Structure formats: C-alpha cells, structure tokens
C-alpha cells in the first residue's frame, strides 16, 4: 500500500469527480483510477461505486477513507515533527475561521509567525462552525477559530479566547447614540445595513432578533464586511456588528457604537484543535501561542490605540 494511493482516495472523496481528483493530485485520470484499483485489490474490498460517472464511495470506501485521512495526517505530522527537531518548525499551517473571528485570527498569526518564521499560514475565513469541526476531523485544517458550544465533542480540544457580543453602529445625530445601551427591538426599527441571510453572522443576528420578539427589515444587504462598513460610513444607515470588528475597522467618523441589550447576547469563541495525540505539531505550536494571549483585552483596543505597558 502506497501513501499516493491513499491520497488518490481522499482526493476522490473530496472532489466527487475523477478528473478533478486527478487534477488535485497532479496526475492523469487513468493514473488515479489505476492507483485506486490497486488499492481495492490489496484491501480486497470495493471502494468506489462505478457507473458511467462517479457515483460515490461504497460503505467500505467510506470507512477506509477515514483511515486514509488519519494515516496521511499522521505522516504529515511526523514530517513536521522531524523538521522542527532538525531546523525549527517549517511548512504550511491551515487555520479555518468563522467570518466574525477574523480579528482574533490576526492576533494569533502575528506572534505565531514571529515565533516560527519558516512557517506559511493559510487562513480560510468564511467557514461555518460545523465546517470547521468537519475539516478538523478530516485533517483538512490544523486548527479552527469558532463558537464553542457547551456540548463540544471530546474529539476536540478547545481554548476559550473571548466572548463575542454585538454593538449597534448608528449616526451620532440619532437619539440612540446618546444612550449607554440600546435594545434589539429599537435597533430593528432603524434603516439597517446587514450581512446577507446566507452568511452565518446574519443568521446569528436573526436568531437574537427572534429572541427579542423583533423583525428587522434591512434596506441594504451585503456579503462583504468592507461594503457594510462603507455604507455605514455614509451616515445614512445603521448596522449591527460584532464588537471584535471594531478592533480592525474602528468606529466610522460621525458614528457611535452602542451596546445591545434585551437580550444581552454573548457567545464564547475559541481555538479548536483535534484531541488526537500527539496531533499536528503546527496545532500544538498555535495552541501554545493562544494560551499566552489575553485575546479579550486585545480586541477591546480600537485602531490607533496602543496597549498599556
């Protein structure tokens, strides 16, 4: 059995298409098909349901691909471990993140890259929580930054980083801007610019509005954080954003950020890795960074502010 054959099977499971899987593995389609056929012969079980086109993996194939992912992840972890012993940590680290946690990611990658200058970091910042957990289990990413549910599986190790909460961005001329807090029901009556319903951050907002018994009717919807802040900067629109975003974008000129209450919604966000031992050397290195950062305090700082000595 060759690692390459396992890579072919994992790629086919991921791409659901022989030609795309072959392209991902930088081989011809016949070479990939032959490699999988030889793997089937060696294991003496059918792995792929074949027809005029790819029809999926067999039940045996579904079980074997999990082992293949684990074996390949352990191989990569071994290579990284040996490399770190020889010349320091090097290679590529993959981090998956929910969109609202982008500010937290930057607070981790900075010190990580300083500590490990030979490592390249790839950040996938548009994942949903369930996607992050699935990709961790499939060894497609080394670590994830996501919401931490109370029932997080024992298959994962989590380090809490901060509590996500929301603020109302509103023009300074509005009466609510002079209040110390605003309710979600009050926010629902404003001309809002929000993320689109397809985005996880918007679905979180809709859930909180439902808890408050309110039904907003946003006039502007966008799938871009930059576009959202651009609209808010005009002063015509209000918006509701995670407080952590202010750490990156600041409060637009002429606007105020007002805490939202009734309900006072918060959700823990943290760094998640697999609980498998010894696991990825990249994940262990990032975990060590996370354990020594006061993320909650860092995210309170607005652009232009410096930390106290």
General description of the model:
The structure is a single chain. The protein has 309 residues and is of the alpha/beta class. 44% of the residues lie in helices and 23% in strands. The protein has helices spanning 3-15, 18-24, 29-43, 59-87, 102-115, 129-137, 184-188, 200-211, 225-233, 243-249, 281-290, 295-300, and strands at 48-50, 54-57, 90-97, 118-124, 143-147, 156-171, 182-183, 193-195, 220-222, 239-242, 255-261, 266-274. Strands 3, 4, 5, 6, 7, 10, 11 and 12 form an eight-stranded mixed β-sheet that branches. Strands 1-2 form a two-stranded antiparallel ribbon. A hairpin with a 3-residue loop joins strand 1 (48-50) and strand 2. The radius of gyration is 23 Å and the shape is elongated. It starts with a helix and ends in a 9-residue tail after the last helix.
